[in-house]
């Protein structure tokens, strides 16, 4: 058929531009990219435009073979990258933990030795230490890596939902995140290192997937398979799971976190790979910690990775206890929702007023908060009267007061005698990890007075709210656990008091409180439950944690959205929810694009016209309209702005004649990666294109570069259905088209099942309908006798 | 507009039938059902056909209010049903466990007391006991509930994938499953009760969702919200999770099992509900067990729910041990793949030859297998020489030999002296739960000889393969754990022997072996891992279990598919995988429906013609073709066979004139549930329709009943893309239509985001493109100024 139909319906000029609208400046269309990739890699197909190839069996065979080898390489590479993500994230986590533990260990050791002589001098040293650490953090973030501020989880969530916030996956962000976390956590601010570790994992994954930073010239061509948007998303998902697995030493929790909280599109094959990455993290972290046990890691030995083993605590519970536990759930929901709301207001105020004034204001703000934190954590315990140590004969395990410079309960701080301890200093004047361990600790009845816990709760809650949203890397997990375990232990104190005879342990209530606050703030369910079980290493409390989470999430959902959703909305990351909104059922597709100016291209288009169209609007995708065999107008595909820019920049495809080009040439002129937007740059803009007048008079045949079949919906389809299509398939563009005039066929389940097994017994439950005998459907050979070879008539025009 | 356009393009007769194909006799289209439901519930909309309603604001307001109350009721009902599913499944599990443990406890107690006098008589009693229990099971299944045979997981998986196997969710199936499980497990066959419990949970969920069995007249109208296919699927998913949670006391494992293994479409809102159901199960089961601890449950006390606590075992591992663990993984992959292959052959042979000969053959087969099992489990230990008990001074905890009639290790069976035990009897002549507990038991070095374990492995593996696929309810989890822990312990014996100085425990290796076999056979990853951790109550082995699972699954995948996939294929349940096959990239939509005869209806159609078309083919969906404003042909929707049958059966919509009907009448003549296919019957067929000659001459207006906008794809779209659309959205029918001639608009992410927040600061990262000012997009009022009011022109024709 090629060569026969020198068609008479070419366009020599450019048609009057039609009305098209397409927005999202920084997006790229996965479908189109996959299409292009396939074509560039030589995988011809019925809808491909390499028409000679379709005729040539031998060529297709060769392609199939090459593709098999390529697939094998690709699979190996995927697993290798997953391994490297696991190792890299685990090492980053170990490094952060080592640094933080050593800095704080040293800080507390020095302070404790000074306060033996002078409490004032001790405070000054303590505050200066904190200020210095926090300053390095905020300086790194503001000057070097602005995208490293905050938790990073809303941004990663947005990225996986399809919104590319600039700079979140850069190499400098990774560096800023790691060193910023060390400074801010080591500096004693009311924030954690877990959220930043998730972001760190995502950065590592993304950078590994592109072979390093493009800016620092590490890019590698053997990583080409990962240059599609979908692959990048998969890697980032792996990285998130690795981050959680490393932060909490919770490999299963990591997988579930990635599944429940972060990804928008989940594939079960991916689960397997994510699982592998998490397992690698667990092994590497365990090895590193075993190595540290020998004492080579300074102050790291005792603290560090948060595993708060409460195996010594309460293992059983009675029905009577369900009431106080439900109360903990309700408190968690209320406090969590309040936390979300307060942080939302404060962050919004910061963004609109404070942070517009430049980096200096940001730095001063963080330093002031650091000073405030130092004053509160050092000053409040001074005001507190010390309690006498518990009877050491009744509790032989308890070391009270603990020797200075070690970790543990019963800190002797500003006490008159040696046999006393300061319960407020035990939680306040400590690293957060140790404080949580003390709060969770079992068999330490009446260690804390209700008054101390209440003081701590109010002060720490306020500090956490104020610290949230400053220009340092900040996670909310550990502060959340701190807040929750404080009121949990408070409730526990009352339960111990009133339910005297039961085997009640305050530490268990602290754990439930922690779960409830996280549930009420972050609104995670299964993943949080598993993470709590994994960090406390106690499965027996699982049903209780589930119960508390159910209640706190339900209460929180009554008031507002989850922390990450709120923050994402605040940062202008428009997350597409998994379900359409209710009112969409009453709208049709046409209404959603009612005010659009649709601008479309003809197949062969003058370069100057392309320039004009690209300059005159910000649309990101353009329909391409051609003509069918009988001269009727037909939509032949979708052209992306980014691909047009690549074509304009390379100039290789310009032609002087307004006739279709030979698509064989295209694969020799371009490789697939020409069209890939690098992860760590903004991509080209129209201003980067410089053409001479002669070049502007030339033509460009868009046919080889367009996505020939974007998804379409009829104009009067319910918007809810359109939304489902868009969201479930992760699309970027859908064409709204007129209602079809006829149905060529119906595709049902049976048409998509190509059974290898022709055993008639196996068919007994299948359809009994008569099926016209036809050729083997699995044949991938050319299909020449299709009734309406539309693409042929359209494109085989030589 | 109504009443203006008495159009001139009605059809009075029936157009020449066009070519359409649509199969899947027993399917129903979710989209169409939702559409109908919405219309029947009065929720008008732009694409709805109640055109008067669109004009009437007041009416819509009233509808919106009613709909709010309805939504609240609906949400409450959903959670109530989830609660009931949890309670019901937990009680069913407790009942099965109580019955099984009591029957087997009694059986072993009687046998042990008899063998003190005569081993032959003991064997006879033992065998008769087993035969009697197995007979009740197989009799119940074959005579009363044939769908209760086997594990049920492949069928449930198929149901959730969209294939409705007849009878799997009936009330009689539930009864058959519960009592059949008791008989087959109590009768000592090499099968488990876990798969059947999943099926039981699914049945309970489905029956609760429709308010009980329709056949036994429990149906209730207040459950109407659950009468859509999608709601039923959600409930069944909850039921599956509840089943796993109850079977293994593994609530998180249950959620993950439902997520990873069973469902095909997962929504994160569902996760939350599934999680709740699992938590309820955990609480109920725990309460029941606490109640049983007081000794009210007969023999139940010690055994029953499988929690094999190995907390006393090995907690640490050295790098050296990773090699034998990897070997366990490889063995697991090989044995698992072999198991899948063997069971596939045997089941296929059974289906094709043996089971075709009727129920009597099935009963005899099971009884023979039961006898064989009795002979082996009783006879083989007789041949084994007893070992002397371990030194009771060195191991004060060990009770050797155990007192007759109790559970535990060290069974004295056919031994010459009192201070001996028979290691083969310890695992063979025991309930499987106790046998596994013995195999997992820690600190019992050298309890089993390698020879005994090998004998057991070979015999039990063969028994498990032979038993699989017989006509009794049969799970594969427990046999799998038995097989795996046997070779795991074998490897452990060698490790203990060669790595002498390490703190190695054979029980830990048995656990890893169990994980590896299940991984190699069922190919589950995260869910299996969590289940193993939950049943052994030991989190510290998590990384090792992950490692072993990774290896065994990879090895198994090299040979064949997972057990459930193989069995589903064998049973003719065509599961749609989540990804299209590779060759689909080289096919286009048209090729998939190339040989179809497309049969379409006009909008107004004669009853006799409908009868003729429905009789002449088995298609399940028919396009309806009408005419647009200018007389051009347009596809106006999809009509389902099942809905046509309902209309023909009720006769209420027949009209004598060939003109469009008044759609207001439709909502008064029908309620939504008229169109719902009851879960537990086959639904109507064309043979149930009896019409007089007069009725056959009447007309039917299909417009109010059709799905006005099924998803469409252009004829030359890649089949892989069509597959994604079909699979991701869970569709039943897709129309293949000609390429569109023009693009009315493009829908992008921004068009689907309707922000409540118009804060300009929040927009800073959003699009910078200029957007034409338009009316508030959220308004759901009538949209009269749409450019192409296609539906109006099409349907408002009075």
UniProtKB/TrEMBL annotation, chains A, B:
SUPFAM superfamilies: CBS-domain pair (SSF54631), Clc chloride channel (SSF81340). This is Chloride channel protein. GO terms for molecular function: voltage-gated chloride channel activity. It holds the Pfam family CBS. It comes from Dendrobium chrysotoxum. It is found in: Membrane. InterPro entries: CBS_dom (IPR000644), CBS_dom_sf (IPR046342), Cl-channel/antiporter (IPR051280), Cl-channel_core (IPR014743), Cl_channel_pln (IPR002251), ClC (IPR001807). Residues 706-763 form the CBS domain.
């Amino acid at each position: 058929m090629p060569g026969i139909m020198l068609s008479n319906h070419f366009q020599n000029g450019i048609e009057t531009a039609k009305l098209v609208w397409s927005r999202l400046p920084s997006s790229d269309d996965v479908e189109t990219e996959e299409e292009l990739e396939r074509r560039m890699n030589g995988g011809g197909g019925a809808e491909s435009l390499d028409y000679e190839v379709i005729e040539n069996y031998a060529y297709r065979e060769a392609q199939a073979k090459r593709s098999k080898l390529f697939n094998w390489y690709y699979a190996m590479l995927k697993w290798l990258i997953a391994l490297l993500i696991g190792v890299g994230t685990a090492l980053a986590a170990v490094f952060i933990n080592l640094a933080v533990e050593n800095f704080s260990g040293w800080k507390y050791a020095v302070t404790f030795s000074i306060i033996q002589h002078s409490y004032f001098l001790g405070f000054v040293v303590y505050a200066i230490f904190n200020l210095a650490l926090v300053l390095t953090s905020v300086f790194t973030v503001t000057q070097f890596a602005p995208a490293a501020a905050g938790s990073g989880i809303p941004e990663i969530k947005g990225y996986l939902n399809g919104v590319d916030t600039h700079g979140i996956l850069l190499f400098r962000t990774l560096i800023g995140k790691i060193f910023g976390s060390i400074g801010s956590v080591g500096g004693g601010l009311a924030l954690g290192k877990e959220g930043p570790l998730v972001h760190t994992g995502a950065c590592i994954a993304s950078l590994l997937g592109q072979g390093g930073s493009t800016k620092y010239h590490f890019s590698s061509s053997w990583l080409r398979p990962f240059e599609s948007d979908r692959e990048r998303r998969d890697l980032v998902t792996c990285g998130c799971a690795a981050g959680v697995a490393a932060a909490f030493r919770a490999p299963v929790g990591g997988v579930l976190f990635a599944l429940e909280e972060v990804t928008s599109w989940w594939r079960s094959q991916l689960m397997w790979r994510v699982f592998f990455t998490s397992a690698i993290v667990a092994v590497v972290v365990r090895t590193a910690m075993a190595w540290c046990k020998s004492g080579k890691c300074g102050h790291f030995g005792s603290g560090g990775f948060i595993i708060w083993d409460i195996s010594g605590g309460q293992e059983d519970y009675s029905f009577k206890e369900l009431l106080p536990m439900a109360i903990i759930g309700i408190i968690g929901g209320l406090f969590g929702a309040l936390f979300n709301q307060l942080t939302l207001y404060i962050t919004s105020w910061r963004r609109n007023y404070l942070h517009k004034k430049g980096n200096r204001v940001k730095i001063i703000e963080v330093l002031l908060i650091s000073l405030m934190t130092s004053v509160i954590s050092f000053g409040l315990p001074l005001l507190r009267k010390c309690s006498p140590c518990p009877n050491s004969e009744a509790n032989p395990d308890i070391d009270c007061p603990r020797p200075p410079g070690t970790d543990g309960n019963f800190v002797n701080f500003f006490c008159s005698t040696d046999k006393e301890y300061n319960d407020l200093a035990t939680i306040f004047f400590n690293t957060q990890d140790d404080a949580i361990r003390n709060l969770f600790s079992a068999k330490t009845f009446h260690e804390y007075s209700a008054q101390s816990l209440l003081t701590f709760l109010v002060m720490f809650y306020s500090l956490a709210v104020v610290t949230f949203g400053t220009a340092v890397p900040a996670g909310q997990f550990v502060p959340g656990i701190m807040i929750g375990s404080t009121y949990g232990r408070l409730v526990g104190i009352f339960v111990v008091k009133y339910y005297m005879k039961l085997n009640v342990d305050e530490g268990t209530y602290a754990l439930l409180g922690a779960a409830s606050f996280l549930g009420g703030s972050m609104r995670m369910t299964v993943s949080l439950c598993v993470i709590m079980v994994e960090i406390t290493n106690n499965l027996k409390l699982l049903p209780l944690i589930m119960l508390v989470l159910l209640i706190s999430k339900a209460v929180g959902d009554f008031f507002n959205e989850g922390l990450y959703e709120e923050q994402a909305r605040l940062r202008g990351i428009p997350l597409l929810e998994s379900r359409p909104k209710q009112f969409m059922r009453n709208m049709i597709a046409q209404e959603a694009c009612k005010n659009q100016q649709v601008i479309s291209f003809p197949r062969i288009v003058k370069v100057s016209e392309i320039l004009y169209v690209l300059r005159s609007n910000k649309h990101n995708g353009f329909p391409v309209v051609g003509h069918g065999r009988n001269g009727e107008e037909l939509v032949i595909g979708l052209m992306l702005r980014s691909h047009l820019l690549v074509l304009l920049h390379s100039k290789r495809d310009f032609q002087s004649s307004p006739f279709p080009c030979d698509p064989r040439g295209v694969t020799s002129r371009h490789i697939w990666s020409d069209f890939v937007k690098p992860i760590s740059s903004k991509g080209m803009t129209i201003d980067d294109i410089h053409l001479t007048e002669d070049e502007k008079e030339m033509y460009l045949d868009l046919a080889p570069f367009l996505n020939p079949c974007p998804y379409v919906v009829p104009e009067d389809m319910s918007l809810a259905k359109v939304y489902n299509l868009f969201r479930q398939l992760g699309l970027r563009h859908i064409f709204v088209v007129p209602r079809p005039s006829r149905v060529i066929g119906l595709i049902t389940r049976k048409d998509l099942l190509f059974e290898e097994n022709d055993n008639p017994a196996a068919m007994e439950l299948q359809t009994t309908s008569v099926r016209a005998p036809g050729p083997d459907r699995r044949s991938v050979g050319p299909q020449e006798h299709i009734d309406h070879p539309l693409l042929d008539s359209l494109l085989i025009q030589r």
